[in-house]
Design goal:
By secondary structure, this protein is an alpha/beta fold. It is built from 6 helices and 4 strands. The protein has a 4-stranded parallel beta sheet. Helix 1 crosses helix 5. The protein is globular.
Amino acid sequence: MQVTAEHRPAPVPPPGSRGIDEILVAARAQLHRLNPEQAHLACRAGALLVDIRPAAQRAAHGVVPGSLAIERNVLEWRFDPRCPARLPQAVDYDVPVIILCQEGYTSSLAAAALQDVGLHRATDVVGGFAAWRIAGLPALGPTPLHRATPLAPPVNTGWARR
């Protein structure tokens, strides 16, 4: 019988470590989180909306028009004004950046990481893209990852007439 994580007692955490729930609470404590409507208004006023979801998730659920797609694994490098790999939009530490993920969890961690880099106005969207859609705000998609080629009409070879 294979032992799975759900059948095994939880290990004793190392001293000083924090669970993900504690890390999330700490991250959110440093943010002024925005609901989807507030985020939409902030974007219309010039804030950058950054979608950190993987391409497959954006294709499956849709995207916000005008958002920047910057996957999570490169976010800090693209927005750190000190970094040679930064985006042209990463001009200083006062840039208002609003992070969007699917449900508003990873975005909180990412926004806190941008604040750690010095972008003090970084925040995220409560409820993520799912809440954005529910609020009826502008969104495109979903779109298939691979375009299906249209099927050619069947060729009548004459056998069907018999």
